[in-house]
Write a structure and sequence with these properties.
Order of helices and strands: HEEEHHEHEHEHEHEHEEHHHEEHEEH
Strand order of the largest sheet: 4-10-9-8-7-5-6
Radius of gyration: 21 Å
Helix content: 25-40%
Number of domains: 2
CATH architecture of the largest domain: 3-Layer(aba) Sandwich
CATH superfamily of the largest domain: Type I PLP-dependent aspartate aminotransferase-like (Major domain)
Number of helices: 13
């Protein structure tokens, strides 16, 4: 493919933007080549600055479950933009989205006490606030997290984080003092003995257990339901809160996210990506007694100039209204057909999937822990990424990242992608 314009834009970007990108994984460092600069998109397709067209399996890293520029979302955005871009005051749109999300969760997870929600501008902000709130509610200091789970780039959580750190080949970030992570306990996923030991050693100080219930930022490390149930048990028994980071899985694996899929209700849950309909939105939701500790009702401070932005709220509400049962059925059909056919091809690589999220891995059994992912497999993925890119398929530029399906995708598009994947991995 001709990539002259992308290469030129990247050269210009490196002179004015660190690394030429505004998020590290976009730099293509782990897959090689020059980042592709996109110009427009519609439905399941991207068009780059050189006119090349791709089927998009990255979907802006997950938010675009209904594809690019869905007419209903565009209409909601246009309607709000004619009234205002931002107020810096309360507005009806934030109330409407809050009511919709809470009612959706009540219907999807009947026994779940997710009763209030606070909107922010990113998933990182949502998780950062969840941790502060958990500490303020329990009067404890330590957070228990898991090796390979990514929860945004706040200082205390950049300890054995997810794909961005793994792609760069470093376990932590420079610029984070060791003292900032001393209150973060990191243990492996899928290890009940390590979990129990952490509570034996630090139980009285643990404010919360924080986990991606669908770990999807360092491969797709699907957990046993029994392990997630153990987390709930340990949190209740130890007087800690259970926080589900559903920035990726929320509204994607099911209407009620992983909480519905596994039938396990956390005390707090964070959202992002899909809840914004393509706009930057994060959210923290939870039960009343915990959420009421947030300012202005309680002593735990959180604020944001663009929190509850009316344009973003309108986009998010429009997208969530599009996600009725037929949408999930279509995504499940596409995903099931893709997974079944690929895994039936008797290859040394396999696919693991949950709903409309998928990931390729090397071996016969899907890994459940970050340390079980073969680093050499990333070299093969880099070749696969280039192979697909040259044939009009856009995947995330890191083998640690997952792929996403969207509702406008057709069986023909997914079938063509399947054929490319089988052909490539036959020789690997």
């Amino acid at each position: 493919m001709n990539q002259t314009n992308s290469q030129s834009l990247y050269a210009r970007a490196t002179r004015v933007i660190p690394g030429g990108v505004n998020s590290p994984v976009r730099a293509f460092r782990s897959v090689g080549g020059t980042p592709i600069y996109m110009e427009s998109a519609t439905g399941s397709r991207l068009r780059d600055a050189d006119g090349n067209v791709y089927v998009d399996f990255c979907n802006s890293w997950g938010p675009l479950i209904t594809g690019h520029r869905h007419p209903a979302i565009l209409s909601a955005i246009r309607s709000q933009m004619l009234r205002s871009l931002t107020f810096g005051t309360p507005c009806e749109q934030e109330v409407l989205l809050a009511e919709h999300v809470i009612q959706l969760l009540k219907r999807s997870v009947p026994d779940c006490r997710i009763e209030k929600i606070r909107f922010m501008s990113s998933g990182t902000e949502a998780v950062m606030t969840a941790i502060r709130l958990a500490r303020g509610f329990t009067n404890r200091s330590k957070i228990l997290k898991f090796d390979g789970c990514y929860h945004g780039h706040s200082d205390s959580l950049l300890a054995k984080a997810g794909s961005g750190m793994a792609t760069l080949g470093v376990p932590d970030s420079a610029g984070v003092p060791a003292s900032f992570t001393t209150e973060t306990i990191v243990i492996p996923l899928d290890d009940e003995a390590a979990l129990e030991n952490a509570f034996v050693q630090h139980g009285r100080d643990i404010a919360a257990i924080l986990i991606e219930p669908v770990p999807a930022n360092n491969g797709l490390l699907l957990q046993r339901k029994e392990f997630l149930q153990k987390l709930k048990y340990m949190a209740v028994a130890g007087g800690a809160l259970l926080i589900f980071d559903e920035v990726i899985s929320g509204f994607r694996v099911a209407p009620g996210g992983a909480a519905q899929y596994y039938g396990i209700c956390p005390d707090l849950v964070t959202y992002g990506k899909i809840i914004g309909g393509g706009m930057p939105v994060g959210a923290l939701a939870g039960r009343n007694d915990v959420m009421d500790r947030l300012a202005p009702d309680g002593p735990v401070y959180q604020a944001g100039t663009l929190s509850g932005n009316p344009v973003a709220m309108s986009a998010g509400l429009a997208q969530l209204k599009l996600l009725e049962q037929p949408a999930y059925e279509h995504l499940e059909t596409l995903g099931r057909n893709l997974e079944t056919a690929f895994n039936a091809a008797s290859l040394s690589w396999k696919m693991v999937r949950i709903g409309s999220i998928f990931w390729f891995y090397q071996g016969q059994e899907p890994p459940r822990r970050a340390d079980k992912i073969g680093r050499d497999s990333m070299k093969v993925y880099a070749e696969f990424h280039r192979y697909c890119l040259e044939r009009g398929m856009y995947l995330a530029p890191s083998g640690y990242e997952v792929g996403f399906l969207s509702t406008p995708m057709t069986e023909q598009e997914v079938s063509r992608f399947l054929g490319l994947a089988v052909d490539f991995f036959k020789s690997r």
